[in-house]
Amino acid sequence: MIAVSNLRKTFLSGDEQVQALRGVDLEIEKGECTFIVGPSGSGKSTLLYLMAALDRPTSGSISIDGCELTEMKEVEQDAFRRAKIGFVFQQFNLIPNLDAVGNVLLPFIPTGIDEVLVARAKFLLQQVGLGHRMGHRPSRLSGGQQQRVAIARALVKEPVVLLADEPTGNLDRNGGDEIFEILREQQRSRGLTLVVVTHDRRFIQDRDHVIEIQDGKIATSEDGLFDREPIVYNPA
Amino acid sequence: MWRFAWQNLITRPTRTMLATLGLTIPILAILGLFSLTNGIRALMGNTLARMNGLMIMRENSPAPVFSDLPASMVEDLRKIKGSRIVAPEVWKISPPLEGKNLLAKAAGRLFTRKGPERFSGLAETIMLEGQSLPEHLNLKSGVYEQGLLPPERGGGRFLRMEDIGQPNVLISSKIARDYPGADGKPKKVGDTLLVGGKPFHIIGIYETGSFLIDGTIVMEITAARKLLGIDPETVSTFYIEPDSSTEIGLLAERIRVAVDGVQAQSMSQFNVQVGNIMGRLDLFLLLTVGLALLVGGVGIANTMLMSAMERIVEFGVMRANGWTRRDVLGLVTAESALLGLLSGVFASVLAFGSITALNVMLARVQLKLGLTPLLIATCISVAVAIAVIAGLYPAWRASRMTPMDAIRNEAS
């Protein structure tokens, strides 16, 4: 489903080159729930962004659902994102001028919004427990509610892959639990491939696929990480 | 997309209003100034269309009052094939009427009258025309004679041969109103008008509907020469009517070839000349207002740049949700275009209100500012075009970042 091969990403920070990813190889099966964990600055968010075609890698390849992302032109990547990838941010990143329904429909503003899409957006908001807040703007929603809108926005495209970057990072414990409950429920019911970057390992379950990143590489047991944290690595 | 762009604008009302105002003012200035030149064009065209002869003036004279020609030239002009009547005229700016200097009168009105009346004096200059009656009485296009009020309105009569040398004048109904009698009522036929301190008997009152013509006191040429101290051997102009078989342009050409030191202009040519002058005035106004437009455009660019930079993360989120660079470019450009449209519409509404009010004030001088639908449409288009051009750089800035750089912009 998702195949990443020898992925490298180098940033220029001032005059200094920063190697965010130093040759990452991984495979994620369709319908799998995968967690990418690791310390801050390890490159896990960069990996997620590259998987969402939000930037281009310095080298290497990413294939999703049989499509080679890194070989696509920019407009093809845009279309791919619009059709197949849902993305949930830590900061929610809702558009302040739009109400909940408008935010959910954001992906379709350039192409046109019809009644079917509006009905789908409202259904999704009901599914995430915001049926009574559809006309509210982000400023009138709590952090947890905003993140639910963001999840509905990611799902409205009916994607095959849902990527979430620290989706509970700005929420309290209860809010985080609710969001994960929604994410898991949607992943199960839709057969989605869910990839989550998180610091919070309490959401990881035994059957989940966990990838640990350190210093831009996938960590192995030789790095000593597994001794410190009892995580499951590639259970299959 | 347009609805979203509009929402983005109205959520920042102060900034939107200020940017709109910055472009509204120069657009309003364009509408006002071009309405004025349109009005002057229409008035001149309306006036000149009433005369179908040739005006012969000294070469390079801008107007009849600045022209002087030898009276003996009449013989040369009569010999030119195709000229039916050659009518000598003297023209001068009128000396004080009723003992009042015209400038002092205009200033007096400004402070003593109310409403539109206050400004009417500023647009008035009274001319005095002396006509050689043997010729003028045979003209086919005698505007004053044709403009005489009907008898029931007290129009009186036109000049006759017995008026030669007599202090008899025709005045317009406007002059009659502006210089009322002792009872405060407009002057009428039979009353006396003091021109340059000398009494003149009013024999007729005319009204042509053109303030350029209606500001003229008409009298016989020898009486005019005597009043104005003009040499009997001098005239200001000759008014020539062609015979029925001669085209007026051809006659003008013959005169230019046969007589040195004169300009022979048909009224249609004079109209074209006026049009050219107005065209140059339009260009000058456009250059002047262009600077203001530039400032307005810079204001829009600044507003859109600030707005775009503030929303970089939003643009990144849009890109993450499948928006293309072109979509983001389109959104910011649509916002700029809407700012331009708002400016254009505001300016048009303000111009319409102001010009309607001004036209009421200027009704007395028959100058009607011409705010045409074409002018409004052009100005709105110009406003939109300037706003779109001004918004291109901010739009490009907004669209050029990768989604990841844009989203991470918040963190940095």
Précis, in short:
With 236 residues, chain A is an alpha/beta fold. Chain A has helices spanning 44-51, 74-84, 100-104, 115-127, 143-155, 173-190, 225-228; strands at residues 2-13, 16-28, 33-37, 59-64, 67-68, 85-88, 161-165, 193-197, 209-214, 217-218.
Give the full name of the CATH homologous superfamily of chain A: P-loop containing nucleotide triphosphate hydrolases
Helix and strand element order of chain A: EEEHEEHEHHHEHEEEH
Alpha plus pi helix count of chain A: 7
For the sheet with most strands of chain A, the description reads: 6 strands, mixed
* Total DSSP helices of chain B: 15
Number of domains of chain A: 1
Describe this entry's structure for a reader.
- The complex is a heterodimer of chains A (236) and B (412).
- Chain A has 236 residues and is α/β, with parallel strands linked by helices.
- Chain A has seven helices and ten strands.
- The longest helix of chain A has 18 residues, at 173-190.
- In chain B, the strands form two sheets. A nine-stranded mixed beta sheet of chain B has the order 6-7-5-8-4-3-10-1-11.
- The radius of gyration of chain B is 30 Å and the shape is elongated.
- In chain B, α2 crosses α13 (325-361) and α11 packs across α13.
- Chain B has helices spanning 2-10, 13-48, 73-79, 102-112, 117-120, 133-136, 143-146, 173-178, 221-228, 248-258, 267-310, 312-320, 325-361, 373-400, 403-408, and strands at 54-58, 69-70, 83-93, 127-131, 168-172, 192-195, 198-206, 216-220, 234-235, 237-242, 262-266.
- Chain B folds into two domains: 2-45 and 274-408, no CATH class; 60-260, no CATH class.
- Classes of the chains: A alpha/beta (236), B alpha+beta (412).
Q: How are the SSEs placed, and which strands pair?
A:
The complex is a heterodimer of chains A (236) and B (412).
Chain A: E1 2-13, E2 16-28, E3 33-37, H1 44-51, E4 59-64, E5 67-68, H2 74-84, E6 85-88, H3 100-104, H4 115-127, H5 143-155, E7 161-165, H6 173-190, E8 193-197, E9 209-214, E10 217-218, H7 225-228
Chain B: H1 2-10, H2 13-48, E1 54-58, E2 69-70, H3 73-79, E3 83-93, H4 102-112, H5 117-120, E4 127-131, H6 133-136, H7 143-146, E5 168-172, H8 173-178, E6 192-195, E7 198-206, E8 216-220, H9 221-228, E9 234-235, E10 237-242, H10 248-258, E11 262-266, H11 267-310, H12 312-320, H13 325-361, H14 373-400, H15 403-408
Parallel strand pairs in B: 4-8, 5-7
Antiparallel strand pairs in B: 1-10, 1-11, 2-9, 3-4, 3-10, 5-8, 6-7
Helix pairs in contact in B: 1-13, 2-11, 2-13, 2-14, 11-13, 11-14, 13-14
